[in-house]
């Protein structure tokens, strides 16, 4: 019986000691509550003691904690609805306020969700879709972060960051916008093709006109050169004729013979005593 009592006392002592002694590590902070009411706040790591069975310990993380907030549907200033996929990063700055308002980390998302949704609705309700696609998007996110930080101060939270991963249109809106974009691109393509055809016609007509002008200039130049050549030839013929009239007549007769007898099947009906054969009969005197 004595051994059994000793074992029972040892068990009770172990249970009491294990319930009254606890540790807080470097990544934690703790709040001791007595019958649900906060008693002490422990922010430094170490070994601590509490009243067993009367006091409880709630541990809170000192590190930055992320929370997902996806599928937040809000209305923009141009009456378009968008679905925002965001996430937040926070730190528990006041464990007592956090315990009293949120109680534990699992309840953070339930409390943050309506706050972030309200801020998003307020901020996005003043801007248009084009602003989300421009450089001013970063200013919008900064404004959202500041307003969420103010709204959650009563929860004992410090908002480290609010990031918007993506902003999508609802499926029905996306389909309508895609169709409108396709029709706009097709219209622009038709306009560009029409302008291209018009420009090509202008270029072709200009090229044809310039070609006709150049050909006319070339033909005129050819005729001018031919005329100059004939004039020069006539001048040479005249000078030669004036120097030796009989030789000139002889040379012209040779040209006439060459032209007349160049054909193999040429036939002539001429009088042998005609002038055409004078140089063939008598030669050059």
Which descriptors apply to this entry?
285 residues, alpha+beta, 22% strand
Could you give the topology of this structure?
Elements: H1 2-20, E1 21-24, E2 28-34, E3 37-42, E4 46-49, E5 55-61, E6 65-75, E7 81-92, H2 95-101, H3 108-124, H4 129-132, H5 137-151, E8 157-168, H6 171-243, H7 245-260, H8 278-282
Antiparallel strand pairs: 1-4, 2-3, 2-5, 6-7, 7-8
Helix pairs in contact: 3-5, 6-7
Describe the structure.
It is built from eight helices and eight strands; from the N terminus they run αβββββββααααβααα. It is rod-shaped. The chain folds into four domains: 2-61, no CATH class; 65-169, Tetrahydropterin Synthase, Chain A; 180-243; 244-282, no CATH class. α3 packs across α5 and α6 packs across α7 (245-260). 9% of the residues are buried. The chain has 285 residues and is an alpha+beta fold. The N and C termini lie far apart (179 Å). Strands 3-2-5 form a three-stranded antiparallel sheet, with helices on one face. A three-stranded antiparallel sheet has the order 6-7-8, with helices on one face. Strands 1-4 form a two-stranded antiparallel ribbon. The protein is 55% helix and 22% strand. The mean pLDDT is 81. The protein has helices at 2-20, 95-101, 108-124, 129-132, 137-151, 171-243, 245-260, 278-282; strands spanning 21-24, 28-34, 37-42, 46-49, 55-61, 65-75, 81-92, 157-168.
């Amino acid at each position: 019986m004595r051994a059994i009592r000793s074992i029972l006392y040892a068990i009770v002592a172990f249970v009491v000691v294990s319930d009254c002694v606890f540790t807080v590590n470097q990544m934690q902070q703790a709040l001791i509550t007595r019958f649900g009411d906060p008693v002490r706040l422990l922010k430094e790591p170490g070994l601590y003691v509490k009243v067993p069975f009367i006091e409880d310990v709630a541990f809170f993380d000192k590190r930055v904690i992320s929370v997902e907030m996806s599928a937040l549907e809000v209305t923009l200033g141009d009456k378009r609805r968008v679905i925002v996929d965001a996430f937040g990063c926070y730190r528990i700055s006041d464990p007592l306020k956090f315990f009293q308002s949120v109680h534990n980390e699992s309840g953070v998302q339930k409390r943050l969700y309506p706050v972030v949704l309200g801020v998003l609705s307020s901020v996005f309700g003043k801007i248009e879709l084009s602003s989300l696609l421009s450089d001013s998007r970063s200013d919008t996110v900064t404004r959202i972060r500041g307003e969420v930080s103010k709204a959650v101060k009563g929860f004992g939270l410090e908002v480290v960051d609010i990031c918007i991963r993506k902003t999508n249109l609802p499926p029905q809106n996306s389909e309508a916008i895609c169709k409108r974009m396709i029709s706009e691109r097709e219209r622009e393509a038709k306009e560009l093709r029409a302008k291209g055809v018009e420009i090509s016609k202008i270029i072709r007509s200009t090229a044809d006109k310039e070609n006709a002008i150049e050909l006319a200039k070339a033909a005129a130049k050819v005729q001018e050169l031919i005329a100059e050549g004939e004039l020069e030839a006539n001048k040479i013929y005249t000078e030669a004729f004036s120097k030796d009239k009989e030789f000139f007549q002889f040379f012209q007769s040779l040209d006439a013979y060459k032209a007349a007898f160049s054909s193999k099947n040429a036939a002539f009906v001429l009088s042998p005593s005609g002038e055409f054969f004078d140089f063939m009969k008598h030669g050059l005197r």
